[in-house]
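Researcher: Sequence recovery benchmark, item below. Answer with residues only.
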């Protein structure tokens, strides 16, 4: 059984990503910071009208910046998994 979703595979950029692992990383490492900055469950950071991210590559760059700034020490695979989850859940970039 594959953990890669059909939605993640619809975007070739995230074709090998594991969105379940990405959600786990996001829940463990990101939600509390986003919630303290944006209130509620923190998801407004992704849905606000003037969000910074405009492409799949930009999404990975933003996740990588958070990884670096917070010294999470994630591997590139972790960044891709988290980005794929965010893309599937919020952004819906096709490539």
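Model:
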């Amino acid at each position: 059984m594959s953990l890669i979703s059909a939605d993640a595979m619809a975007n070739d950029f995230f074709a090998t990503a594991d969105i379940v692992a990405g959600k786990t990383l996001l829940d463990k490492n990101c939600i509390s910071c986003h919630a303290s900055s944006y209130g509620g469950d923190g998801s407004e950071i992704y849905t606000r009208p003037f969000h910074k991210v405009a492409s799949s590559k930009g999404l990975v760059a933003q996740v990588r910046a958070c990884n670096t700034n917070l010294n999470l020490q994630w591997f590139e695979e972790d960044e891709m998994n988290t980005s794929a989850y965010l893309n599937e859940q919020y952004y819906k970039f096709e490539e």
